[in-house]
Amino acid sequence: MNVYRNYINGQWLESASDQTAPNINPANIKDIIGTIKLSTREEARTAVEAAYNAFKGWRNTPAPTRGRIVARFARLLEDDKANLAQILTREEGKTLAESGGELSRSINVAEFCAGESRRLNGETIQSELPANFAYTIKEPHGVVAIITPWNFPVAIPVWKIAPALVAGNTVAFKPAEATPATAVRICELFEEAGLPPGVLNLILGAGAEVGDEIVNHPAVRAISFTGSTAAGIKLYEQAARRGARVQCEMGGKNPVVVLEDCDLDLAIESTAQGAFGSTGQRCTATSRAVVIDKVADEFVSKIVARAQKMRIGAGDDANTEMGPIVDEKQFKNVLKYIDIGREDGAELLTGGGRATGENLEDGYFVEPTIFDRVTPDMRIAQEEIFGPVLSILRVKDFDEAMTVANDSEYGLTSSIFTNDPNLIFRFVQEIETGMTHINSPTTGGEAHIPFGGVKMTGIGAREQGSTALDFYTELKVVYVDYTGRKREGNLY
Ligand code: NAD
Q: Ligand 1 in contact with 252 (CB < 6 A)?
């Protein structure tokens, strides 16, 4: 049996813990891929200490040299793409096409970050005083904790680790318990790319144990977290007490607004893609369709027909459009929310339970599910489900659509379907999300474009793109006086 090991100070070490959990293929729970050992708090401290000890050497390595290692990692990732896509599909469940997409995004991000290593620039600033000037330097924090979820177990670690390293930080990386195999492979590729020992450390284990230990370790100066809002807000509070920097990307409840003048077929196809792609297990998944009454009946009948045609199955079957839910806990959670929708009086149009049929009995498969006549006060309209469940909320006009779309504690992404330019720009101005899409699904993003949310979804600097390095650097301001004389006049 494959036992996943920690990577600490350049060595692959099996945890001494006797607590283990199986890594299970969610499409076929009889397929046990390996065993994750839930590391101890002491091992987590060792990982942080290794990162701490490696920091001085790494920060003194020229940024373009650091970038070259990240560029080599990008090449290795490209060479390993087919293999890693298989690993990803087997342990997380998404289709091979979706895994390929995630890998492409990861390669693009690593390439982008490698390039940024030659642009780690500050600015020079004129002074009010003669023979004086000031300049700024971007400096790394020190040890950065990177804590990631299971739903994009390659892309999210890469879009955090690559900029952290380029900026000169060292890393303690704690991936989700459900996806250890991809995390191990990422670290193997970084090792092969030539990363010195201790610069990147992998610690496998439970969030409440090793995650908690890392978050509260005094040597950890910054924490980049992606996951649920409950866990993110908790670690934000803990880190605030000791002034550690925090970046959290958390839950979402992303709306599409469908207006009467839009290309309805495009709106339907895009909403289905956003709601059921990656089995709804995307932070950017479409979970609410806010539809103008006049087109609601047509929208509803066509999207139901689309959902009923979805081919459900194992991710490694080329025919499959929608894979399983990642694990038993999430599977039960999604089914629980479907029950809540029924109990709260929403009209179940299609789906509503476990998907059955040939080759589905041993996996965590859920039917694509659509509820109509959902009202904003219902729990399925407010709480993140993280599965293939779409709520349709009918509204009379644009103004009501905006009120309903913004009636959420979350604010990651959104989209609008209309061809009216005035309403498009009003939507862009009024929608309370960190990202928004015009006539395209709520999902998707590019390596060189900032990513992140507002309200209870996002805290701290945006990830990726021109803002990727903001979180991983501190600004130092340097004043230079070359008069050689004591300063005269006011000193502020
Ligand atoms: P989760 O919060 O359960 O776990 C995320 C990570 O945090 C895991 O590694 C976990 O072990 C760790 N963790 C949990 N408790 C911790 C604690 N007390 N201290 C330190 N670490 C702790 O989330 P999940 O179920 O793995 O992922 C799904 C969630 O992630 C969804 O809410 C989804 O919206 C969110 N997500 C958000 C984005 C985004 O960019 N906004 C992207 C992907 C996923």
A: yes
